[in-house]
Amino acid sequence: MATPTAAETAAKLKEIMAASPGVSEITVDGINVQMDEALKTLKYWERKAAIEDGTIATASSIDLSNMMS
To answer: Is the pTM of this model over 0.85?
Structure first.
C-alpha cells in the first residue's frame, strides 16, 4: 500500500471531522488525533501538502509560535 500524501491525509481528516461531530478521537492513516487537537493537526497536514505542491517554501512553513525567548 502506498503512503498517502499530505494532501490526502488532510482531505481525510477534514472529511472525518465534518462527518463526526461530538467524537473525541479519530484515526487517519494510523495517526490518532484528539478532536481538540484536530484543527492543529489539519493545519500541519495542509502546510505539508502546500510544501509538497510547491505552493509555499519550506522556510515559510516553519511555525515559530512555540519558540521560547
So the answer is: no
